[in-house]
Amino acid sequence: MKRRNEELLYQADDAHKKGHLQEAKYLYRSILRSEPLNAEANYKMGIIESSAGRGASAISFYRQAVEANPEMEQFWLSLINALISEKQIEQDK
To answer: For residue range 36-59, what is the model confidence (pLDDT) as tens digits?
Structure first.
């Protein structure tokens, strides 16, 4: 299963880069059905959701990515930025 998900992730990333967001979302979701804590698929879904203005959904995906791989700084940064954008975290004034 892991090998198949790696192939799907490659295809999803390629679709994402080409701007085929519906195809990319379908492929990322396919990965997440069999591997809900796949850090990369969750992170990439967060990016798509964030860029579409769906911040609350993006936060959920970013949280899953952080939970799966807490050492990845970019996952944390994206989560924090989304929380700030959605006014779910206070900024110092």
So the answer is: 999 999 999 999 999 999 999 999
Backbone angles phi, psi at 87, to 5 degrees: 55, 40
Please tell me whether residue 48 adopts helix, strand or coil conformation.
Answer: helix
Contact, 32 vs 38, CB < 8 A?
A: yes
Q: What are the φ and ψ backbone dihedral angles of 88, each rounded to 5 degrees?
A: -105, 5
Give the integer Cα–Cα distance in Å for 79 and 93: 20
In the prediction, which pLDDT does 1 show?
Answer: 62
Query: What are the respective helix, strand and coil percentages of the chain, to the nearest 5?
Result: 75, 0, 25
Per-residue CA distances from 57 to 2, 10, 16, 26 (Å): 25, 23, 18, 16
Radius of gyration of the chain (CA): 13
Among all chains, which residue has been given the structure tokens 């967060």? Answer: 46
